[in-house]
Specification:
The protein is an alpha/beta fold. Helices cover 41% and strands 12% of the residues. The protein has a 7-stranded mixed sheet, with helices on both faces. A hairpin with a 3-residue loop joins strand 1 and strand 2. It is globular and about 65 Å long.
Length: 480
């Protein structure tokens, strides 16, 4: 297996404005910037960094600064130096897969306010759902417990849910998965091969980018305009790049929270059909409509080529780890044939719990939406008071604000904020090629008093940055 390396120019672009923090020594600022790249997944694990001399030249700092920064990272467990082999990225607990770093970074008990994860706590009804599931479990114990497509009763429940919302669906069109991320990985395996392009809206969910790249595919980003989606840009990307797959978050987009109109959906579906590209709508956040009712499916579905991913993670609780794929019957059958090489099905107990939750979901989701609506409005007021030069708009749904900063200092701010007790996911984590240094995702999933504390700490960290003094040299490579 060949050794994975990153060149000094590429690493410099990833670091962006790492020297925005003026009150600390340069070596510590550099160490913080590199550590953040590892934690949020933009710098993969088990990758060899450039040598100290060439990195110092690329960053225009002394070799002593680089040596001290890398030494700090080795002491903290983020680098593994082997004689003659260079410094290799790792996590304190040992090497792992790309994308796991951002999850491990949000571990409980580290004393930081976690604003990197947009995940609310469990709905009150989740506990009762598992009580009900345990009562129903004995009826399934005489069977072997493997179901590649999912329990029939859950597939029927999910199909009926689509039908109630205006999209007639049969149980044979449903596959139950271990969350929407698992569903996306299955679709990538089914439709794509190494080097294939996948059209995405940009920014987008970071673990979707991880999954695409892990499948040896190339994201083909189409930037989001000030409002809505760039339909002409999407159509051009579908027409020109020959993608096998296109992936969009149409319902309360992560991270921006925007919602795609039926007219835009129709245009994108038609463009994908013309390009013979399989289109995925990720509906993970569809239940979290805060300023409008859940919209019915309002256009004619094609017989094939359009796939919908669903999940219970944001609607009820991420710990359920249960999602599904809705597609045409041949696609579901093809997925079932390939799934056995990855796993043999979704745990029965979780499936039974979700049957209970979906069977009486209205009250649960109404309470969920009311809670998030209040927290969203609270966070907007807090940001407006403490950080008045930041631009935030109220999204119609979802779990986060997409804040525009006055200067491209997102990475530097994310590194600095941990000293003030707040963990953030920098804007470039939601894009490719270092984009979105001027943006920051701010989830409103925490309690109001915690959000207030987090914004106060964030304002202190931002003030420490003194963004007006960041040099133009430090801004090079930032993409807005």
């Amino acid at each position: 297996m060949s050794t994975r390396r990153i060149g000094p120019a590429s690493l410099t672009r990833l670091l962006g404005a790492w020297r925005g923090e003026r009150t600390g020594p340069a070596y510590r600022q550099l160490a913080d910037g590199l550590r953040l790249l590892v934690l949020d997944g933009r710098l993969p694990l088990d990758v060899v960094l450039p040598g100290e001399r060439e990195l110092a030249q690329a960053l225009e700092v002394s070799r002593t600064t680089v040596t001290a920064a890398l030494g700090r990272l080795r002491d903290d467990g983020f680098l593994d130096r082997r004689q003659g082999a260079g410094a290799r990225t790792r996590l304190p607990g040992g090497p792992g897969e790309r994308g796991m770093a951002s999850l491990l970074a949000g571990s409980e008990g580290d004393g930081l306010i976690d604003m990197a994860s947009a995940a609310p706590p469990a709905a009150e009804q989740v506990h009762q759902a598992f009580v009900s599931a345990i009562s129903a479990l004995p009826a399934h114990l005489p069977n072997h417990g493997y179901a590649a497509l999912g329990l029939p009763i859950l597939r029927e429940t999910i199909a009926a849910r689509y039908t109630r919302r205006g999209l007639p669906t049969m149980p044979d069109q449903i596959m139950v998965t271990n969350g929407a991320q698992h569903a996306l990985a299955l679709m990538l395996r089914l439709t794509c091969g190494p080097g294939d392009r996948v059209v995405i809206d940009h920014p987008t969910y970071p673990h979707a980018i991880d999954a695409i790249q892990r499948a040896s595919c190339r994201p083909a980003p189409v930037g989001l305009p000030g409002e809505g989606w760039d339909v002409e840009g999407v159509a051009a990307a579908l027409r020109q790049s020959g993608p096998r797959l296109a992936y969009f978050i149409a319902d309360f987009h992560n991270p921006t929270g925007r919602w795609m109109t039926p007219q835009t959906r129709t245009a994108i579906v038609e463009a994908a059909a013309r390009a013979r590209t399989t289109l995925i709508f990720d509906e993970t956040l569809i239940d979290l409509a805060l300023d409008l009712p859940i919209q019915p499916y309002a256009f004619d579905e094609p017989d094939e080529g359009l796939v919908r991913l669903g999940s219970t993670g944001k609607s009820f609780w991420g710990g359920l780890r249960l999602g599904w794929i809705r597609a045409d019957v041949p696609t579901i059958q093809a997925l079932a044939a390939r799934r056995s090489s990855i796993d043999l099905g979704t745990p029965i107990l979780e499936q039974l719990a979700v049957v209970h939750l979906l069977g009486d979901e209205d009250a649960t989701l109404d309470a969920r939406r009311a809670m998030l609506r209040g927290r969203r409005d609270h966070l907007i007021r807090a940001v407006g008071t403490a950080l008045p030069d930041w631009k935030v708009t109220s999204p119609p749904g979802g779990l986060s604000l997409w804040a525009e900063l006055p200067a491209p200092v997102s990475t530097a701010l994310a590194a600095t904020s941990e000293r003030f007790g707040v963990r953030l996911a920098a804007g470039p984590r939601f894009g490719v090629d270092g984009a979105f240094e001027r943006f920051l995702r701010l989830p409103y999933t925490l309690a109001p008093e915690v959000l207030t504390d987090a914004v106060d700490r964030l304002a202190q960290a931002y003030g420490r940055l003194q963004p007006g003094q960041v040099s133009s040299r430090a801004h090079q490579g930032a993409v807005v």
